[in-house]
Amino acid sequence: MILTVTPNPSLDRTYEVPSLDRGEVNRATGERVDPGGKGVNVSRAVAAAGRRTIAVLPLGGAPGALVAELLDAQGIEVAPVPVAGATRSNISVAEPDGTLTKINAPGPELSAAEAESLLETVRRQYRSGDTDWITCCGSLPRGLGPSWYADLVARAHAAGARIALDTSGPALLAALRERPDVVKPNAEELAEAVGRPLTTVGDAVKAAEELREMGAGAVLASLGADGQLLVDDSGAWFGSAQVDAVRSNVGAGDSSLAGFLIAGGRGPEALASAVAHGAAAVQLPGSVMPGPADLDPAGVTVTTEIPVDRVLTEPVS
């Protein structure tokens, strides 16, 4: 069972348009409404794979009620933490060439009591079942300081839990001191964490190794169209898959993390599962999470022969 924690969930509306014309009336050809937030997406991907998951998240107002309703409809157990502010609503506009324009609301400000209640709910849910992983994902809402994730990791480790962390900036750096078992940055977040540009796959490998030196047990790094890296105490692997057409990359990294954890959260087999889930996700509309029928494991390549000199398709400055 995978327990996810999403401190700043959202209600996500995705519109598909032939093209986005700024300042003009744009007519959508497709529309979706999904529960959002990185941890929520991990739970959705885990549930799509037929595995049990519990989503811990603060919810408030009508948007929060709809998020809980949508998650329940997808077979996800919800452990809500009631908050005074309304859950945020986000908008994404997807174009046929894969270009995605996002407008993310800030979300509610949590009180000190609500922040503590969120931590307590995680503790209670972990102790009530056979949890394989606690997965902490996304940005922190207003009211939660950068050390909030670090506090959660410390408490979870004290209880014997394994922690996967997907966040960035000061929250990531603070949490690394508590040695999360897995962190999952993308290329931009890797560059931010080490404070320098990433131009090649080799640059990304070095950055991942530095995150391990800072405290991460393993680093699962998404490099967009260039593939994914896994760096842990036994070495480094590079995974890639052919993608014919990108429809939407919303939630692709979250789907990758779910695939990694579903496959055990360690080693090349887990990386292969992560790559398969990520490749499937980008070919689906909005933030739809792939199920087993969407995966193409045979199309995934995992190797220790890392193309260190390959220039990243989207270098990070």
What does this structure look like?
It comes from Streptomyces kaempferi. The chain has 317 residues and is an alpha/beta fold. The chain has a single domain (2-316), classed as UDP-N-acetylmuramoyl-L-alanine:D-glutamate ligase (3-Layer(aba) Sandwich), CATH 3.40.1190.20. 34% of the residues lie in helices and 26% in strands. The protein contains nine helices and 16 strands. It has helices at 38-48, 61-73, 112-128, 148-158, 169-176, 187-194, 201-214, 252-262, 267-281, and strands at 2-5, 10-16, 30-36, 53-59, 77-82, 88-94, 100-103, 133-137, 163-166, 182-183, 198-200, 218-222, 228-232, 235-241, 300-303, 311-316. The longest helix is centred in the middle third of the chain and has 17 residues, at 112-128. It starts with a strand and ends with a strand. The model has no long low-confidence stretch (mean pLDDT 94).
State the main characteristics:
UDP-N-acetylmuramoyl-L-alanine:D-glutamate ligase, 10-stranded mixed sheet, 317 residues, 26% strand
Task: Tell me the name of the CATH homologous superfamily.
Answer: Ribokinase
Would you report the number of β strands?
A: 16
**Could you give the distance between the termini?**
38 Å
Q: Label the CATH architecture.
A: 3-Layer(aba) Sandwich
Please state the structural category.
alpha/beta
Radius of gyration: 18 Å
Low-confidence stretches are none
Query: Which band does the percent of strand residues land in?
Result: 25-35%
Domain count, please report it. Answer: 1
Strand order of the largest sheet: 5-4-1-8-9-10-12-13-14-15
- Overall mean pLDDT stands at 94
EC number: 2.7.1.56
GO molecular function: 1-phosphofructokinase activity
Family: Belongs to the carbohydrate kinase PfkB family.
InterPro entries: 1-PFruKinase (IPR022463), PfkB_dom (IPR011611), Ribokinase-like (IPR029056), Tagatose/fructose_Pkinase (IPR017583)
